[in-house]
Fold these 2 entries.
Entry 1:
Amino acid sequence: MKHRRTEFFVNTLSLGITIGISFLIVILMILLMSETPLKTMYYFFLGPFTNKYYFGNMLNASIPLIFTGLGIALAFRSSMFNLGGEGQVYAGGLVATFFLLIINESGPAVLGILVALISSALLGALLAGMSGFFRMKWNTDELISSFLLSSAVVLIVNYFITGILNDPNTNLLTTPPVNERFWFLKIFLPSNLDISILFAVLTAVGVYFFLFYTKWGYEMRMCGLNREFSRYGGINVSRYMVMPMLLSGGLHGIAGSVAVMGTYHQCLKGFSGGIGWNGIAVALIAKNNPLAIIPAAVFFAYLDAGAKAAMLHSDVTFEIAAIVQSVIFFLVTARAIHDFIRFRKKEVQV
Amino acid sequence: MNSAQFAFPLLHNTIGIMTPFLLAALGGLFTELGGMLNIALEGLILIGAFFSVVFAAFTGSLFLGVLLGIAVTMIIAWIFGAISIYLKANVFISGLATNLLASGLTVVLAFQFFGNKGVILFQDLPKLPKFTIAALQRVPLLGDIFLGHSVFVYLSWVAVLLAYVVIYRTPFGYRLRGTGIDQKAIRALGLNPQRYQIAGILISGFTCGLAGALLTLQLGAFVPNISAGRGWIALVAIYLGNKKPLGILIASFVFGLAESVSNYAQGAINVPADFILAFPYLITVAAMILFSIWQHRKSVV
Amino acid sequence: MRGITKIYRETGLHANEDVSLSVEEREIHAIIGENGAGKTTLMKVLYGLEPPDDGNIFLRGKEVIIPNPLAANKLGIGMVHQHFTLIPSFTVAENIVLGIEPRTKGVFFDRESAVKEVGRVIEEHNFHINPRTRVSSLTVGQMQQVEIIKMLYRDVDLLILDEPTSVLTEQEIVKLFENLQRLVKAGKTCVLITHKLDEVMQISHRVTVMRKGRVEAVRYTRDVDCRELSRLMVGKSVLFDFEKKEQDTGKTVVELRDVTLLKKGQERPLLDHLSLELHAGEIVGVAGVGGNGLGELEDVITGLRHIQSGAVYHDQKDITNIGPIAMRENGLAYVPADRLFRGSSVQSTIRENMIVTNPRRFLRAGVFDQKKIQVFAEDLAKQFSIDGNPDIPMGMLSGGNIQKVILARELANKTDFIVFSEPTWGLDVAGSEFIYKKILEIRDAGSAVMLISSNLDEILGLADRLVVLYRGKMVANLRNRGVSKETIGEYMLGLKDDFPKKKADAS
């Protein structure tokens, strides 16, 4: 028990240092670049809390990040890298839209939503699963193969959105909107926040349960920590190169379809940009703990929301969020920060 | 249209297209030989692209622009390396961070200085010098394919030779390779392996700066995310080239040819542009898989 | 060296406490002690790899500070590590000059003069090695020579050798000692770290005994005998004396028939037509010098590595190449030599380590019954007297406790044959005795036991039958009755072979 508490303390503090440094850098940037630094800072840090609209939208933006963060965490827990999140989210959104457009008025709405969720999960799983399969079969590096596949998929999805499935009634690069029956219920008007946040939270709980209370989850974690040991202990190691990728891709696909049904109501060109990458950061901040992914995703959405508010009310551009996020990315796995805290703590105890 | 009329411009273009791959991959090779994965090539190219063209416009000199662009790229590369090596961050994650930083930083600075987040044109920029030898221009093949490129192309060829010499013929090359194979052995000799790894990363910063400079200077403009996956392809070229300078030259040529062919196909046949742009990625995946199947066969009796 | 103290911060381990050591010129000075006595740490301090927390180093009466190996080399101190620090894809000469390369024009690596200079050092000290050979194609003994030459090339006077004989064959050891004696004659000084007493007696002039981070005694070798050294080393004399009851062996449990394992690009098979039976209630001890197929046999009989020809049977059933999962289903239990990497997942909790071989039995309606796991873990911890809460990561346990967790886990399932590989390597005496008692219990309960070990005392003390491998081939398969260590040694070195290959078969 004592060990766990120390571990928790060290993790929290090092995360605090990481975030602290990234905030310092953003303050520095705002001081350098903004004509009205105080106003900019106010909106960057507190903007998301100034009204219901911003606050709800921030929570809404965290929904896909919870799904992708969970997907990445599952893969990381098994020592597999799914770098194809971007393409999997995008493809999931497209296939969900495609089926919803076909179903349109027929059958009950719930059925349509189920078809959309399942088809997006399957497509995402297929895309990521391929990389897992190649890794198992020929030891092809799944990190690079999943990235390259995803890059190709993004372009192919673009083709569908701007080509066959393009909405002729608008100049926007998008598919037609899906039937209103399939739109998720808004629960925090006037913001975009919809009911799927509950679904996201439930999924996080489900993934937690899967990892720590089921045999598959256990074996997956063992493979992730030490494959040689797992093989020795009689675990089917090959299976756990493919399964986590399937699950990871599936969650990414669902992130896409949920974003379509909850927020966009159509498949907009480039709607998934950044959701996949940020999922990686979210998983890392949460130390791959499914429950911690919820606050981590909200935090990442907060950075985006803050930057957006600052852009609307002041004179900086939205991309400063990317810089803050990259600083967090840089430092979140830095073992030296960990070691430093441990070392200090020990000295104090002695 | 006879085949030469078709093939010569195709190959001529290939050589232009492959150059950024080649430059970035050669630098990345030094990182790789030092035992580190260089995911950051993509971001470093982008940094080089932005700062070279901006500095070239500010100073009015291409040479100074490239020089300063490379300097900034090396600084960012050093940050990437220092965080990975001294702060012991996961090199793959900090590589991703570098890419994210690059795309954020370039846009933020573009907005700050030019009030514009889209394409930034630099009209007064001098043209990149092209290298031609009038006497040889007439020689078939040579003139059609190998001459008339910008200086960067020829620089990249010199870089191949230089990389070979440094890696296989200097103490530095031996120590760098030794670091990649067995860090403990290098440390036991009283050498500092981290220094060689940092050097490998700085070299990748240098060549990525060059590669990026080529992209923006030949265009006379900066386009957001102009690196457009070239760093990733360069990374794959390192593996496909079996971590050897000559192999990388060949792998880069293959990728250049693929893109060049798809550019032609785009005009000649009625295939949607997005499909053709996806093509190099799919070829690369296929090449990777074939390569790993071959490796797999080799390792199994 | 005077009053050296070294504390490892990460673990709080006092590796050296107030250690003083003096080495005279032109002597061979042995430092002995059990694993973990602090010998290697002391030498690392001397070689500049670890900074001491306290104490001073004097060289020829002058105090020196040695911040890194390069500085040590400049002062004439060189070290040959237990694990070689060579780059396999480089040549002998390239490896030797690495770090102080000869150059042409100040920039380029001068390969020709590297070969020439290294050749000169090789000749001067009477070694026989071609400087142009790639290190990857050398034998272990030759690699060690390269390490020694590397130090000689750096002009050292004091040569530290860390467990130099642990990977060598008997002949190679003889050769090494000849080389060392020649070096001493030529004016060099050697410090030899070892835990093998006979070597100390054979070659050293003086010996320092270390125990638990302190110096226990310093003696002239001619004034002591093995027994006294052993007593100093372990505190009490080790006598492997087991009460082993006589027992008739039962049916054949596992049979290897003509098992052959090949390595790509190598002509000599790793395992060469090996045929062997394991019977119920019998311990088969497998001995051999490292590199002669022991590790490969471990991998093959546990299903981790596939064989190219031959067959494996369990209860008459063909189980060739069925893989580790099916092997376990067939009743295999296995305590591996590599207990930190293969035998455990050090980041996982003890509890998670305990259930790996059969997680299914803790499921209720598809979900882990945490209470059942807890009871199981506590139960095993009590039975095997494992210190430590089952919730802490495995890596926080001591080596002995880790081995107990592995053993407890492997014995928790029904098993009828069990493979031990180097079960007591690195353990202290009490830990070893615990393991020995368990091995005998398993045998008495009627399981077939294979004990693969490089510790001959262990094998002679425990085994019912002795098997010796030499170059992947079985050269002896005897009942362990009145067999002497010397005899086993002769088999291990290939001097004796009970199963010579008939030439007709081979062709």
Entry 2:
Amino acid sequence: MNMFKERLFHPISKISFIILLFIAPLFFSDSNIQLFIFWGINILLAQSINLLSGFSGQISLGHAAFYAIGAYTSATLMIHFGLSIFITIVIAAIFNAFVGFLLSIPARRVKEFYLAMMTLGFGFIIQEIVKEWSSVTGGVMGLSGIPSAKLGTLNFFGIQANMVMYYWLVLVIVIVTMWLLKNFVQSYMGRSFLAVHRSELSAESLGISPGSAKQLAYTLSASIAGIAGALYASQMAYIGSNSFDMMQSIGILIMGILGGFGTLIGPILGAAFLTFVPNKLQFIQDFQLMIYSLLLVISFLFIPNGFAGLLKIRTSLEKGNRINKSIKAIPLKNDGKLLNEKQSSFLKKSFSPILNVKEVVKDFGGLRALNDVTISLSKGQILGLIGPNGSGKSTLVNLISGVYPVSKGEIHFNGKDITNMATHSIARYGIIRTFQDPHNVPTMTVKENLLLGTHRLFKSSLLACTLNANHSLREEEQMLTRVTEIMELCDLTDYADELAGNLPYGMQRMVEVARAILAEPQLLLLDEPAAGLSEGELEELNRLIRYVKNQGIPVILIDHHMDFVTGLVDEILVLESGGVIYSGSVEGMQKDHHVIRAYLGVEHHA
Amino acid sequence: MIDFQFMLELIFMGICVGSVYSLIAHGFNITFWTTKVVNFAHGPFLMFCSMLILMFLSIGFPWIVAILLEMFSISIIGVILERVSVRPLVKSPTSMGWIVATLGVGLFLQALATKIWGAQALAFPAFIFESTDYVPILGISMSLQYLLVLGTGLGIMLIMELVMKKTIWGKAMKAVSFDPDLASVMGIKSKSVVTISFILSALLAGVAGLLIAPIYGNVAPDFGMNIMVLGFVAAVLGGMGSSKGALIGGMTLGVIEKLVGGYISTSAEHGVAFAILILILAIKPEGLFGIKAVQKV
Amino acid sequence: MLEIKNLQVNYGPINALKEVTMTIEKNKINAIIGVNGAGKSTLLNTISGLVDPDQGEISYKGRQIQNIPVEKRVKLGIGHVMEGRRLFKDQSVHDNLLIGFYFRNPKEKRRNALLKINEIYKQFPILGNKQNQMAGTLSGGQQQILIISAALLSEPDLLLLDEPSLGLAPIIIDEVYQLLEELKSKGMTIIISEQMAALALRISDVGYILERGQVVKKGDRSYLKSLLDSDGLSSVYLGKAKV
């Protein structure tokens, strides 16, 4: 199977496959050419929903709306203004991107079934508009007379285009879109989509703004669907509101789910299935709707990862292979050091407190979770945070990282007031945290998860990423080098290409801590990193935290393993029912009556 | 004066149409209470119920038998939906699974209805009242059909409020939704409560189908989905999970729709409803009367 | 009363419980002592049926129960007070008690619901005074009393309490513990989990110390007390003292 797959994805077989696709129509009947054109259009649709629902996790039940807008935009521009299809496709893509952006403004704020209903409603609105706005869309009568290769009314640069030429146009567009998409999903932006999909909170803790990521996803996805719509209009020569009803939206969704969300090959297969199978089997056509709906019911139960999952196809989300091939041996700016120049110079500066938490209070309803806590932390210092269950340790970390708003008090970091700022903004200032249960993206490899840690350090633009501009590749390579280094440090090298979700629990924790370190934190918050680790893993974690300390990065460490904590920290803070009962050295704590009482329940005569 | 009466009539119509939406919203609420699941097949359920009644009537059964058979069938479909599309998927980290799976069941019913009865709209006979039965109230003539829907909508809201607040079963349902583990430690069969909630929700779809179809005069396989989204708008307007909210939300939506239809254009009616959905979700997702939930980490 | 043999529970790749074997005798207070994450809650949850074991057997009154659903185990007489003061905070005190009574008792007894609840109000007047308030508005101690009362309404033979002292003021802990001793004198068997060893040992007859899902030490009160005094426990909690 693997041998076969390797051969299948070898560049030579890829190129010969593409050449074959170019020559094929010359030997096809017209109806077959048409079928392949529909496959191409469906691929675009499937990739469009794949980007939105598969990668960034935003369900869409009204995707046909984007398809419709693209089709009507292109069609009216061609009919009324006589514009060339090349121009109308571009306009349809841009206009649709704009519509997608507009929809994202409300849509980025809602989740789950609310979003599902909202997109369903969006689909209905657009369909209503298409039906009612008859002066432009032709209403229920539809719009006919669209220049089409089928009727010989379509011109490419003054030459009358035939079906084969139109096929080539579609083919070129599909290939270019696929190439751009591949570059995109393998860039830091593409990875951020999956991070948002897995957990918005965890994405935010790495400096990713879920709102912006979703906005980009809607914009790009809508734009691709727009291109598909424009191609569809010219293929059919006639469009009516029925072509863009809910069933169409469902069809698009099925292509994505059945093919396999989150891969690039899957949707191609899903599109092929929905294009060719109903066409070849009359029986299926009769029961098309029923079969589609049954597919919806069973797909998540039996093939949650679609065809791609069945074939064990996965799309890599980093450009390691691409870089190894083309730009070898670029001198590294940072001489292979994990932290770059800027970072270490920052660390050499003063030893004044970097974090100041002043008289912070947190109330949940009537319950006071944290009462008047004040801490200050200097560079290179490790602060241990301990206390019985429910004493407010995690709450404190959640306040510093901006997950909860504070009820009273102030938090300053590096001289800036960060009280009640958004989590991703705080993360961009360099406060990076981990969670009690590992928040890695389970469907990403270890390497890709670690790359996610470096997200906030990337500077390449969207265009540079999708066009694989040289400087963006170099940036990706730099980050990959850092990732490789830290994998060696944590003994993760052997698992680089393993999916994070398949790793043993302890290793997942290590990946999360390593990921946080790769974000070049200026303050690291570790919430129970040792929970569930074996002795050996504990030692490794110990080494990793010491490494961080040696870099001068201050750390706040919550944990229950006292041996582990006391061996690491410079200072310790003990919380009980939301208040500080002890603050100072470890030795002092072990003799402190309050602490002993809090942990053992009695005054202890030791 | 004529204008004022016209407006009154529109508002009355809106309230009555709105109580249809609130019937659907109640249906959403019941399963939402127990599982936080919104059944995306609820609209097709409603459509299928109308179709079933029509079929049983055409066989020659009297109304009462047709209704009983319909209610029985939809309960079974409700149980199947819960077993197939909800139970196995509700615990997965994303909601995409159960959304897609319940939607799939809905579309299957829609496809089945199309296969059996054709895609065209079928005439639905009058139930209890004729569409020409009017009573004059406050100078405007009110359709008895609409009044029946309004009365049923109000009645169901009252019953649901009573059941939820006063009976042990309502308390058990609330308990299951609040903390299923604790509920089972207290001896409540959490799974059965969930199944019962899906049956009740399906029955409500049955009632809605019975009352709405005579007003529309005809039913087509695709009318369920559209009206379902309107019912969802009502539920969201009133705040998901609130019985009073469902009623008020439904009526608010109905009145806005009718006013838009009367003064601007009837073709804009539904469009406005969908626009309200998008707006309310974006601005105040907890609904006009809902309470904001606290995010947990 | 309760026999646990070779119990093993895995959460994904983690072993939450490893080969736990214990014999709980009738009419005794048994303490499960351990730090956070040692597996105390998992053990109690497995006994009450909230968690399915991956391996091992649990027999209660001579009957294998590991495959019986939670609701049925409740009817067999296993009461469970879960960790973190869980109650239906959005429902009134009275409704919490009503739910606690109704579903765990056979039909003929249900008629006496109000009678039974009134007995509770007599015993804890504070609950009676606040019976119409939302349970979430009670203080921590009152909530704990309410939870235990609700559990008692099913008249369990075996009561599991998961860290009942958590976050309570010492004086209220005393109250709760006094209540437990009363229950024991009425013939109930109790298993209590505690983070604080000394606290648990105040009332328990037998103690088990759990570390990373395994029972590392067990014995009667005097044995465990001697461990506590010799600093053997202190290090478990506070780390090995660096001198």
